[in-house]
Specification:
By secondary structure, the protein is α/β, with parallel strands linked by helices. Helix content is about 40%, strand content about 15%. The protein has three domains: about 5-175, Aconitase, domain 3, CATH 3.30.499.10; about 175-260, no CATH class; about 275-384, Aconitase, domain 3 (2-Layer Sandwich), CATH 3.30.499. The structure holds FE3-S4 cluster. FE3-S4 cluster binds near residues 76, 283 and 361.
Length: about 375
């Protein structure tokens, strides 16, 4: 990979964080045969929950120095920063998680703590970014038409320090072509079904760039859920949707292998367990999803089960009236964290979700059983 004189200097910098960041980018560039480094507009760093990275991760973050060269955003942490006690988080965990966040803020990161950074000042069509959270990567590439590879937390951080990333993968036109046509003839009736569709297709077509043909226009929330499931199950980082996503007509689909989705069962998973927690917000809920939830719970009284909702702190602040109305019925709306990266979920045995991504990761990471259903079904069960 060609380095400019300036980049060569950074590679030999006396500042260890700069030098290591350049070494990481150079190694990645060489592995993937990048020709050069390109500038990025922003980075998004995942893997910051103390639950997932422990003391080694904490010490590594605290060993870093310097400042990010571009806008740097961070993924959810292991707890709500204000209401961690309500989640059942102990003080030892809280303190260590705060140290991780402080170390990142010292480098100049914004305290976003959300996996939906695309709701706030999103990148535009053709912008290069280096994002790590998988649902944000697939959203940026597919729905916004921005360009990012699926970074690790470390490579996103290195890109943030240098302000550049190696030019390979989805930064290049040729890798953004669809590689399989998915013709969805099945009727999709609710958000859980689109999420489950992504889950099932993801299992079948790992590492492809699918081109979807649907019989109806999908909302951005549905596209978000589809992408999150595809990314969790199939490593998908980009998909196209006919007549919808910004790059759908840039490439020919002639001769693509075709998958007909009426042959895949698009239905709810069998009822596996009796939920003691209902958890929505994977990925973090949008304004429209919060409004939909409020409509569903109207006049229903008080919840009879623990019911947690996750969204970004910015949305909680922006929609404080709506959030208070949701909380009046006993639902807790948490920020800065989620059911997958917080250890708090381990206090439960069976968690009900409407997200294919949560369905993928909760059993593995939080060792809980999972029941799957739509937001409407979650609400019905909670007030039953
Ligand atoms: Fe976001 Fe947590 Fe799901 S980070 S995409 S809510 S696993």
């Amino acid at each position: 990979m060609h380095l400019t004189k300036e980049e060569e200097k950074l590679l030999h910098s006396e500042d260890q964080t700069i030098r290591k960041s350049m070494e990481i980018l150079l190694a990645l560039g060489e592995i993937f045969d990048a020709d050069k480094l390109i500038e990025v507009k922003s980075v998004q760093i995942s893997g910051i929950s103390y639950q997932n990275i422990g003391d080694p991760g904490l010490e590594w973050f605290e060993s870093l120095s310097g400042r990010f060269a571009v806008r740097a955003m961070i993924n959810p942490a292991g707890m709500d920063l204000k209401r961690w006690r309500e989640m059942g988080i102990d003080e030892g965990f809280y303190r260590k998680q705060i140290r991780i966040i402080k170390a990142l803020l010292k480098l100049g990161a914004e305290q976003t703590l959300t996996c939906t950074p695309y709701y706030f000042d999103p990148p535009s069509l053709g912008d290069h970014v280096a994002w790590a959270e998988s649902n944000a990567v697939v959203y940026a590439n597919s729905i916004l038409g921005a360009r990012t590879n699926r970074e690790s937390g470390i490579s996103a951080l290195a890109a943030g320090i240098i302000g550049k990333t190696p030019n390979y993968g989805l930064h290049l036109d040729e890798n953004r072509k669809p590689t399989i046509l998915v013709d969805v003839k099945a009727e999709i009736e609710n958000e859980a079904q689109i999420s489950l569709l992504g889950y099932k297709i993801g299992e079948k077509i790992a590492d492809e760039v699918p081109y979807f043909r649907f019989r109806r226009k999908l909302s951005e929330d549905w596209l978000k859920l589809l992408g999150a499931s595809l990314a969790a199950k199939g490593n998908t980082a980009l998909f196209h949707v006919e007549n919808q996503t910004p790059e759908w007509d840039r490439f020919s689909i002639d001769g693509l292998e075709k998958l007909e989705v009426d042959k895949i069962e698009v239905k709810m998973e069998a009822e596996k367990c009796d939920p003691d927690l209902i958890a929505l917000g994977c990925p973090h809920l949008s304004e429209e999803e919060l409004e939909h939830l409020l409509n569903l719970i109207k006049d229903k009284g008080k919840v009879k089960k623990d019911f947690w909702v996750f969204t970004s702190r910015k949305l909680v602040e922006k929609m404080s009236d709506l959030v208070s109305k949701i909380e009046k019925c006993g639902i807790k709306v948490f920020s800065d964290t989620c059911m997958v990266v917080s250890p708090a979920t381990e206090n439960y045995e069976c968690v009900m979700v409407n997200s294919g991504k949560a369905l993928t990761y909760l059993p593995k990471l939080r060792k809980v059983d999972v029941r799957f259903g739509s937001m409407r079904e979650c609400v019905e069960l909670a007030f039953d």
